[in-house]
Design goal:
Blueprint (H helix, E strand, L loop, with lengths): L3 H10 L1 E4 L5 H25 L1 E2 L2 E2 L3 E5 L6 H7 L2 H11 L3 E11 L7 E4 L7 E2 L4 E6 L10 E3 L12 E2 L4 E2 L8 E3 L6 E5 L4 E3 L8 E10 L3 E2 L11 E4 L2 E2 L19
Antiparallel strand pairs: 1-13, 2-3, 4-5, 5-15, 5-17, 6-14, 7-16, 8-13, 8-15, 9-12, 9-14, 10-11, 17-18
Bound molecules: 2-oxoglutaric acid.
Length: 256
């Protein structure tokens, strides 16, 4: 899934696009599960308007889905992610976090510049974010933008804003990273990134899947994370017992 040149770009620029590395029929199944959880979450959002960084009719972050869904659990623990994550993080890897991020048509606001570690500080600070589009992500529908090389600054301060935490207010517009369905953007948890408004008439759908070394801890409390299963030990895939599908409850959380 990742060639040496791509690995080099990841370490130098903080991100790399891995084109056409996921199977379309697998993505169909993943998308239908995410649609289900997003619809359920959005229904509740309509009642409250805003919940953390999720806003009804604009953007919904629906988190920790692989822990309760067999299709998603298999997907995040599948060979492409085991290979990618072990190349970047070493032999022992766990799922740190997963969330659907659905940006609805005509969402005028961006999701502001941040590092993923700005939301929850981790030890080690570096983990791997895989941004997986379920539809082609374009400038018009709110693709990811990055500031290449910004990961080298380490963890920086974030300020709260109405749209989410923000770590950069300067003039650098960054670079857009449009990607087609089937591709993955792999980026460092320390990379400054944002997503643009969705001025299209279609939903922009993404699944954000993050992997850390096993035993990663909260940087302030020292507590180990248990948000997801170990997917690799000794560089080899770990087959975890599948969760039973949960068709009645949902969990959400905030993680930029
Ligand atoms: O998908 C998006 O619009 C933003 C997601 C993001 O930046 C994140 O989950 O860290």
């Amino acid at each position: 899934m990742i060639a040496s040149q791509e690995l080099q770009q990841y370490w130098e620029q903080g991100y790399v696009v891995l084109p056409d590395c996921l199977d379309a029929s697998v993505l169909d199944e993943v998308e239908s599960r995410l649609d289900y959880y997003d619809a359920d979450h959005h229904e509740r959002l309509l009642g409250v308007g805003k919940e953390g960084i999720s806003r009804a009719n604009e953007i919904a972050f629906t988190a920790n889905l692989a822990g309760k869904d067999r299709v998603l659990a298999e997907f995040v623990g599948s060979d492409p992610f085991v290979e990618l994550a072990t190349r970047i993080l070493g032999p022992n890897v766990q799922l740190y976090w997963d969330q659907a991020v659905y940006k609805r048509p005509e969402t005028a606001q961006d999701f502001p510049w941040h590092q993923d570690t700005g939301y929850v500080p981790t030890d080690p600070a570096h983990y791997l974010t895989c941004w997986i589009p379920l539809v082609d992500a374009t400038i018009d529908n709110g693709c990811i933008w990055v500031i290449p090389g910004s990961h080298r600054q380490g963890m920086v301060t974030h300020q709260p804003t109405a749209l989410g935490l923000q770590c950069y207010f300067g003039p650098d517009r960054g670079v857009p990273v449009p990607v087609s369905r089937g591709s993955v953007i792999a980026f460092s948890s320390l990379l400054f990134h944002r997503s643009g408004p969705n001025v299209s008439s279609q939903m922009r759908k993404a699944y954000v899947v993050q992997f850390s070394v096993e035993h990663a801890k909260h940087a302030l409390t020292g507590e180990e994370f248990h948000n997801g299963p170990v997917i690799a030990r000794g560089g080899r895939r770990v087959l975890s017992s599948p969760p039973h599908d949960d068709a009645t409850t949902n969990s959400q959380g905030d993680e930029g």
